[in-house]
Automatic annotation (TrEMBL), chain A:
It is a multi-pass membrane protein. This is Iron ABC transporter permease. It comes from Pararhizobium antarcticum. The chain crosses the membrane at residues 21-43, 76-93, 105-125, 131-151, 163-183, 208-226, 292-315, 321-339. The keyword Iron does not apply.
Automatic annotation (TrEMBL), chain B:
It is a multi-pass membrane protein. The lineage of its organism: Bacteria, Pseudomonadati, Pseudomonadota, Alphaproteobacteria, Hyphomicrobiales. Keywords: Cell membrane, Membrane, Transmembrane, Transmembrane helix, Transport. It comes from Pararhizobium antarcticum. The chain crosses the membrane at residues 21-41, 75-96, 105-123, 129-148, 160-184, 204-221, 249-274, 286-304, 316-335. SUPFAM superfamilies: ABC transporter involved in vitamin B12 uptake, BtuC (SSF81345). This is ABC transporter permease. GO terms for biological process: siderophore-iron import into cell. One of its GO terms (molecular function) is transmembrane transporter activity.
Length: 347, 344
């Protein structure tokens, strides 16, 4: 892949990589994930010795230490799932919009899901996890369509600046609507305030189980659209020339991304910037071929979210920092760095 | 004997100037009218004669407390904060030649908010020290955003995107401080964050007045230089404007006003963002937008607070009302700008 076929030629002039290097990176990434997995189960607010940890993994919950570890296992599982979903969703959004700044957080999609969930809780007394997920997905979908319509209207189509501004504006708007809904409702304010920040703490298997079918469909659609995204990366005319139905390809891939981030937001609250950082890092490792990039982004997202969650548990002992805050603190400087790399005219 | 063309031009200019004065007078009258209404019509009705007597310092049973202690500080604070937001916002928009480059989008308001929340929750400070910290932090963030977007000069679009990133980071800092806040300060911080003039006291008006007099006066004195910046840096320099110095002065005074107002009332959403464009729509390109924007800002906060208290089903702080108002306008602006093909 050279020249025009490269989606981000300014960033990675020699983005083509041989499959051997990619396989090496894959092995490396899985090894990192394994290390993080171990860390996530062993590290926490409470220090637990190894015997208890191994007993807890076996299912025992006799001592306080074992019970603490037993709580960490579903949390780790949720962090993996949510991270993979957000990383993948970010990679797809960047591919569909051909825009290096696309991210479910910046484009306002997560805030859309969160507004929908807040409306459901406040006005319709929604409480079942299934209802959370459906409204989250519906909100994410509406917000995505809304932001993309605004951002791509007028001259020049969907430039990164217009999309980012439309997303930021929509996020601010949705956030103030959330406040307007929550403020007179003291009964739900506390719960929503903590959910709004985005975290994986307090996860249980009961909360995770209803998410799985939605995420599975989302992952399947997303990963299967890799080839379509590769064609889209060539530009609309070339993709159409290759026999790709551009609008359908975009719609299907976006549907996958919306399923993923809507579901994740419904369970964890809005977590930003993960979908921005991960695909960029993965592109530096393995190039721009979406057949590799998409699975890598999923794995990388899982690793980054898990890492951020562990970091949040460690740096504020004895308290914890929610993972949504950690990802924003890591991701926002990254966002600024990308902005600084671009030449002005291209923004 | 003047030629017809010159006579026409003179006539045209005179009419423009007259129109400008009359529109400004109408705006001012509107502010005064709403100010009067908020003083006399609240949860209970106070006859205007009583209101006037209270204002002149007489002790009127039943009215002295409601008007003098509750409504007057609230209205005064609304007007002053609105003027600060409007003036500071439009100064940024003019200087950066972009209607979207208002302090609430590019992180300056977030910076002041983060500092104030930190002061309230972590340092348990209240009162004027919070304002000082918020002003310092607002300035710091302005310098940071400016510095980070500096690469062979500052381009407007890069500055806005960097600002969005910085704002997101500061929001997460605010979120973190709030999660670790004990319940009693959390309430205070949340109230503050939505932006409201609840529980206003006349003593709070003093920093706002000072900021308006000092920074607002500076800006108004430099109106010509600021307007010249709108033509582009090179043209402004050719017209004899010291670009770097003017820009510094504008940043300092606009941030000073915005941060002071933010420190007193909290970040009242979108007032800084909306005032300039609304004033521009009313006045077209008829002269400087500074004073009109200040009036529009005052009007927005006054009317928003009144609506939030009395016209809506449950009582909302003014920030929620202006936020709900601002969001559709923002989207309208984006659509309009991209349709006309202007530069965002």
């Amino acid at each position: 892949m050279t020249g025009r076929t490269n989606m981000f030629p300014r960033f990675w002039p020699n983005a083509a990589r041989s499959n051997r290097i990619r396989t090496l990176w894959l092995v490396g990434l899985i090894a990192v994930l394994a290390v993080l997995l171990t860390l996530s189960i062993t590290i926490g607010t409470r220090n637990v010795d190894w015997a208890d940890i191994i007993a807890a993994i076996g299912g025992a919950q006799d001592t306080i230490g074992q019970a603490a570890v037993a709580l960490r296992i579903p949390r780790t599982f949720l962090a993996l799932l949510a991270g993979a979903a957000l990383g993948l969703a970010g990679a797809i959004m960047q591919g569909v919009t051909r825009n290096p700044l696309a991210d479910p957080g910046i484009l306002g999609v997560n805030m859309g899901a969160s507004l929908a969930v807040v409306i459901g809780v406040a006005w319709f007394g929604m409480s079942s996890p299934k209802a959370y997920i459906w409204t989250g997905i519906a909100g994410a979908g509406c917000a995505a369509i809304f932001v993309y319509t605004i951002g791509s209207s007028g001259r020049g189509g969907a430039t990164p600046l217009k999309l980012a501004l439309a997303g930021a504006a929509t996020s601010v708007a949705f956030a103030s609507m959330v406040i307007a809904i929550v403020l007179p409702r003291g009964d739900i304010a506390g719960g929503i305030q903590s959910w709004q920040i985005g975290g994986v703490g307090g996860a249980t298997y009961e909360r995770i189980a209803p998410v799985l079918p939605f995420l599975a469909v989302g992952f399947a659609i997303s990963l299967l659209s890799a080839r379509k995204l590769n064609s889209l990366a060539l530009g609309e005319e070339l993709a159409a020339g290759l026999g790709e139905h551009v609008a359908t390809a975009r719609a299907i891939a976006s549907l996958g991304a919306i399923l993923l981030c809507g579901t994740t937001t419904a369970v964890c609250g809005p977590i930003g910037f993960l979908g921005l950082v991960v695909p960029h890092l993965c592109r530096t490792l393995i190039g721009v071929d979406h057949r590799w990039l998409l699975p890598f982004s999923a794995l990388g997202g899982a690793g980054l979210l898990l890492g951020a969650d562990i970091l949040g548990r460690v740096i504020a002992r004895p308290g914890e920092i929610d993972v949504g805050i950690v990802t924003a603190l890591i991701g926002a400087p990254f966002f600024i760095w990308i902005v600084r790399r671009q030449r002005v005219r291209e923004l | 004997m003047l030629s017809p063309t010159i006579r026409f031009l003179l006539d045209y200019r005179r009419r423009r100037a007259r129109r400008r004065v009359s529109v400004q007078a109408v705006l001012f009258a509107l502010v005064v009218a709403i100010f009067g209404i908020t003083l006399s019509v609240g949860q209970s009705f106070t006859p205007p004669t009583d209101v006037v007597r209270v204002l002149f310092g007489e002790n009127v049973p039943g009215a002295s407390f409601t008007v003098g202690q509750l409504r007057l500080p609230r209205a005064v604070l609304s007007v002053l904060a609105g003027m600060c937001f409007g003036l500071g916002g439009v100064a940024f928009q003019i200087m950066l030649r972009n209607p979207l480059a208002s302090p609430d989008i590019i992180g300056i308001t977030s910076g002041a908010s983060a500092a104030a929340v930190f002061a309230i929750v972590v340092l348990s400070i209240t009162g004027p020290m919070v304002s000082v910290l918020a002003v310092v932090a607002g300035l710091g963030v302005a310098v940071l955003v400016y510095g980070l977007s500096f690469r062979n000069g500052v381009a407007g679009s890069r500055l806005i995107l960097v600002g969005i990133g910085v704002a997101a980071m500061l929001q997460s800092v605010i979120g973190y401080i709030l999660t670790s806040a004990p319940a009693w300060t959390l309430q205070e911080a949340m109230r503050w964050l939505t932006g409201s003039v609840n529980g206003a006291q006349l003593s709070q008006a003093l920093p706002l007045l000072l900021a308006l007099a000092l920074f607002g006066g500076l800006l108004l004195m430099r109106t010509r230089d600021l307007e010249a910046l709108q033509l582009g840096d090179d043209t402004a320099a050719a017209l004899g404007v010291r670009v770097a110095r003017t820009r510094m002065l504008v940043i300092v005074s606009a941030v000073g006003m915005i941060a002071t107002a933010t420190a007193v009332t909290g970040p009242i959403a979108f007032v800084a963002f909306l005032s300039g464009p609304i004033a521009a729509r009313i006045f077209r390109s008829n002269g400087s937008l500074l004073v009109p924007s200040a009036l529009v800002g005052a009007l927005l906060v006054l009317a928003g607070d009144y609506a939030g208290q009395l016209l809506l089903p449950s009582r909302y702080p003014v920030g929620v009302v202006t936020g709900a108002l601002g969001a559709p306008y923002l989207i309208f602006l984006i659509i309009k700008v991209s349709r006309t093909g202007g530069s965002l």
